[in-house]
Amino acid sequence: MAGPSIRTEDLVRRYDPQKRALRLGRFRRGRDRDEAERAQAPVLALAGVSLEVREGELFGLLGPNGAGKTTLIKILSTLLLPTSGRAWVDGLDVTRDVYAVRRRINMVSGGETSGYGILTVRENLWLFSQLYGVPSQEALARIDRLLDVVELAEKAGAKMNRLSTGQRQKLNFARGFVSDPKVLFLDEPTLGLDVGVARRIRAFVRQWVHERPGRTLLLTTHYMAEADELCDRVAIIDRGRVLACDTPSRLKRQVESDTLVRLELAWTPGADAEEAVRAVRGIPEVVRVGSAEDAASGHTRLDLILRNEAAIDPVFRHLAGNGGRVLSFSKAEPTLEDVFLKLVGRRLTEGTPGSPSGTRNGQGTGDLASGSSGATVAGAGEAASSADGEAPGTERDQETARAEGGWPT
Ligand SMILES: Nc1ncnc2c1ncn2[C@@H]1O[C@H](COP(=O)(O)OP(=O)(O)OP(=O)(O)O)[C@@H](O)[C@H]1O
């Protein structure tokens, strides 16, 4: 692998709520104005991020909602200025060489459905390919391939405004690859997609990076399994800070000294098996996995983290001494969730609606909007309004950017 394709140096981004409140007051009335008035403290979305992504790498930013992932991607894709610090993409400064950066990149935001409603699926992809100057034969072949990957071939002749939300999202994903960019930013690419399509997309993403020399892909996700399965390296990010950055396997090795055990117990109906296990020394964490109904019927499943394997013996003895019976037990492999838990002290999926918190291998369902926006068109218009340093992501940013040709709607 070659030198860094993406580099950030002590990147800070603060959102100033006063500016935002003023803007909302100026441009909108009613409910949003109330919301603006409620905003009080500045938000430090990035608190000094220094990262290097190598050319040819599939790099993941893994973090919970609000961690700063989209903010970082917006800065790298020239849609937003940092408050301080510097960033380079393909050796170019993202704040000074805006057009040159845009010619080399593309960006897809999973929660977004960009394109032109009155054009068909194929026409949309053709339009974007031509904006990037892709030669005709190459563009046609690429479009066919991408339609196949996202399973939209049957809808190739359908107008975009006749597509479902998921189908628009697939079209948006295909749009990101149609220019065959040198550096691609994917912000939550599989958000809300059904399992089969998400799997196909992940396979395509992996193949795209590894079969094309010189391509780099930066992906954000709050799905641990996605980061684990796809990425060469992962940065775990929380509250605007990078907490760890390494290959998934080396990150998981950090928690390998702990032993993860799943127990299935026959237990006194209604009694608290979790509490009983907590009483044993050397058990830093116990998580109930089985349901309350299971517990009421005298059947319980627990996940335990043990400081070392030897601690399992006292657990068995304690359970036997309290009328319990171990039906089965298995050792679990550590996941990135365990790394996150160790680094941050809470689960990645905690507080995420639809996510099965409390499961060791649990993964969010991803039905949330990412709140992110934007796709860049190479060489088109001025830098998006966000790049004036004002808070991005508001309607004003999108309106101004549209007017300036900054990104398609
Ligand atoms: N335009 C904005 N104005 C004010 N605060 C913002 C704005 N955009 C983002 N933020 C805040 O900055 C922080 C980081 O947001 P960001 O969207 O970068 O996080 P994220 O990791 O992408 O989250 P998610 O997974 O939910 O998309 C959050 O606290 C968010 O509320």
TrEMBL record:
Compositional bias segments (type: Basic and acidic residues): 393-402
Feature: compositional bias, Polar residues: 352-362
Family matches, as Pfam families: ABC_tran, DrrA1-3_C
Keyword Amino-acid biosynthesis: no
Region: Disordered, residue numbers: 349-409
Keywords, ordered alphabetically: ATP-binding, Nucleotide-binding, Transport
Protein name, entry field: ABC transporter
Species this protein is from: Limnochorda pilosa
Lineage of origin: Bacteria, Bacillati, Bacillota, Limnochordia, Limnochordales
